Amino acid sequence: MRRLQHRDYHVAHHGAAGPAADVSCGRILVIDDESLVIRAIRRQFGGTVEVVGLDDARRALRLLCDGGRFGAILCDLMMPGLSGPEFYRELHHRMPEEIAKVVFLTGGVVSSAMRDFLRRCPNSVVDKPYEPDELAQIVSTLLGSPVVGAARAPAGVEDAAPR
Hints:
- By secondary structure, the chain is of the alpha/beta class.
- 39% of the residues lie in helices and 14% in strands.
- The protein has one domain (7-143): Response regulator (Rossmann fold), CATH 3.40.50.
- The chain has helices at 7-14, 21-24, 35-45, 57-65, 84-94, 112-120, 132-143; strands spanning 27-31, 50-54, 72-76, 102-106, 125-127.
- It has a five-stranded parallel beta sheet with strand order 2-1-3-4-5.
């Protein structure tokens, strides 16, 4: 996993999340076409924050444009339809104040275009399978407070993080 220090830059140059920040701080949006990933993240964080999972980036973009607010947006890089980079570009165009909240999830970058995008993008990238403690740290930073109980997956689901 690689963790990029981008949050301070975005807050300094683009401002905080705006008036909806208080509402969004306890919500995570997960965009991934693999239901196992959404379930694992919901299991990890669901006891302390609201987790909304969508398997379609276009639906996620509509949700955000319609006023849905989240403190963290976890987005798979490679999905059918709208890919992670395409989602990011659309979000940047429509709602630039939200892009600092995006964290990319990837099972492996295969194309040179994807590698180029990640080199240029200041946002964090988390490799799947992810370490629950590391993901909890990134999410806690984005939400602006420690996510209580998120450092470990609940008992019996240690292997819930996708492999």
